[in-house]
Design a protein that fits this description.
Layout (H helix, E strand, L loop, with lengths): L2 E6 L10 E7 L2 E6 L3 E5 L5 E6 L5 E7 L2 E6 L4 E5 L5 E5 L6 E6 L4 E5 L3 E5 L5 E6 L6 E5 L2 E5 L3 E7 L11 E8 L1 E7 L2 E5 L6 E5 L6 E5 L11 E7 L2 E6 L3 E6 L4 E7 L5 E6 L5 E5 L4 E6 L1
Antiparallel strand pairs: 1-28, 2-3, 3-4, 4-5, 6-7, 7-8, 8-9, 10-11, 11-12, 12-13, 14-15, 15-16, 16-17, 18-19, 19-20, 20-21, 22-23, 23-24, 24-25, 26-27, 27-28
């Protein structure tokens, strides 16, 4: 099945730089880019609102407790009303660029270039700090297990939440294995890239983290350049990369469901709408909408 472009931003409505981060929330497409600008689009990719969110690049964003949370290379985490875009709070505590935000049901994780993952409560108070030594480019969390990654290896740490005393973080590094970002969780499977960055590998999130094979398309239809974006929805994994393609995979069956080209620009970020439409943030500031046809 093919993925076709059904809408695109224009030269006048595109972002000011590469679209590094995206989320879909309440019928709107939130995008962050180089230059620190946040642009929210309607589903037809007309502009809804925009503002200067970070001093420079908006590296990551998420919805936590119903609020929009953004971060970037200024080391600040900003909390906004997702509806009005009023700034509600600014969190400090990182002393370097923050690459990733990850929300769970009751905690917010933030990872920086100094190798620290800070863990925030629902009330946005700092609970723990996990020291990973290496830069944190992406994070995935399954229960008390935290996966962190840079460009060469993935580290798996167990966080002892119940053993925290006087603010000290208790954690055990369980294992590490070769891989690179991005990361995504599909059920009890963690999806990541091999070191060259073009093959999607699978492992169990359960004890032992057994290998579960790879996602491979038949007849060379997989990615042939580095994968830069992953997004999980149910059993499906959406991927995009420097080969100017977006793909949908069914993880349990390890099958390619659909694929399409962005035509001329590499993918920097992905998000998925409520109706299954795919929004891709591209190098150069454009955002496109794709649908299965």
């Amino acid at each position: 099945m093919s993925l076709n472009i059904v809408a695109s931003t224009t030269e006048e409505t595109k972002q000011g730089g590469d679209v590094i981060s995206m989320i879909f929330h309440n019928g709107k497409v939130f995008t962050g880019a180089e230059g620190g600008k946040l642009i929210i689009y309607n589903q037809d990719l007309t502009v809804h609102k925009e503002l200067q969110a970070q001093f420079n690049t908006v590296n990551s964003m998420c919805i936590f407790n119903g609020d929009l949370v953004t971060t970037g290379n200024d080391g600040l985490i900003k909390v906004w009303s997702a509806d009005t875009l009023e700034l509600k709070n600014t969190l400090t505590g990182h002393d370097n660029e923050i690459r990733k935000l990850l929300p769970t049901a009751d905690r917010l994780y933030s990872g920086d270039m100094n190798g620290k993952v800070k863990i925030w409560s629902r009330e946005l108070t700092s609970q723990f700090t996990l020291s990973c030594v290496e830069e944190v480019w992406d994070i995935a969390v399954a229960g008390d297990i935290c996966f962190t990654v840079r460009d060469k290896d993935i580290t798996c740490s167990e966080i002892k939440f119940q053993e925290n005393v006087d603010g000290d973080t208790k954690f055990v590094i369980l294992t590490s294995f070769e891989g690179r970002p991005p990361l995504a969780l599909v059920g009890n499977t963690i999806c990541y890239c091999n070191r060259p960055g073009m093959t999607i590998k699978l492992r169990s999130t359960e004890k032992g983290h057994a290998e579960q094979g790879e996602l491979q398309a038949e007849k060379g239809q997989g990615h042939h350049k580095i994968i830069t974006a992953m997004e999980a929805r149910g059993t499906l994994l959406y991927t995009g990369g420097y080969d100017n393609t977006v793909k949908i995979w069914d993880v349990p069956s390890k099958k390619l469901i659909a694929s399409g080209t962005t035509v001329s620009s590499s993918v920097q970020s992905l998000t998925v709408g409520d109706d299954g439409s795919i929004y891709a943030g591209l190098m150069g500031g454009y955002v496109i909408k794709m649908q299965k046809q």
